[in-house]
Amino acid sequence: SIIDELIYSNRKVGSEFSVMRNFETEEIKNTLSLIFSTDIADFSAEYSYSDKRNLSGSEILFINSFKLGASGTVLEKNRMSSELILANNNFKGDASTTVAFSMLQGLQPDLNIVWLINIKRDLARFLQLNVLYSGRYSQNNRVIHTGSINLVAYF
């Protein structure tokens, strides 16, 4: 299936303790998604363009991002999902401010690559093991790797 989505959002952030953390941003985002499903796996491709502006300052951000995703069942009790995201953030302003961090969603200006692999295994009817690995790369920075293991019990 093909999905085209246009979203407008407005966000106000205020702080009693620091005027530098008060800002209002607006975003217009257009996303085009292609989803393909089979009996054992789902695949997706997504392109999005976003225009974010700080209404209480001069920061402007244009984002072009492309995302590939796959998920499916592996060997009966295992569910695996993965994503690869390429994002080009064209940011105008000081990237070291609170509003910039919020607008960039923790990423950096210019090229960013983010990846994620998640494996879920049902150990019992009420017990699930989750293994998550993610990483990100941005120009002029080292690669950041993050992993976690969770044991979830359902009552």
How does this model look, in words?
This protein has one helix at 98-104; strands at residues 2-13, 23-37, 41-54, 60-74, 78-92, 110-124, 127-138, 144-153. The protein is mostly beta strands. The chain starts with a strand and ends with a strand. The protein has an 8-stranded antiparallel beta sheet with strand order 1-2-3-4-5-6-7-8, covered by helices on one side. A hairpin with a 2-residue loop joins strand 6 and strand 7 (127-138). The mean pLDDT is 93. The protein is built from 1 helix and 8 strands; from the N terminus they run E-E-E-E-E-H-E-E-E. It is globular and about 55 Å long.
Overview in brief:
With 155 residues, this protein is mainly β. The protein has one helix at residues 98-104; strands at residues 2-13, 23-37, 41-54, 60-74, 78-92, 110-124, 127-138, 144-153.
The rough form would be described as: globular
How helical, in percent, are the residues? under 10%
Percent strand: over 45%
Can you count the beta strands? 8
Uncertain stretches: none
Largest sheet: 8 strands, antiparallel
Which secondary-structure class do the elements indicate?
A: mainly beta
Work out the helix count: 1
- Biggest sheet strand order reads 1-2-3-4-5-6-7-8
What is the ordering of alpha helices and beta strands?
EEEEEHEEE
How confident is the prediction overall: mean pLDDT? 93
Distance between the termini: 36 Å
CA radius of gyration: 19 Å
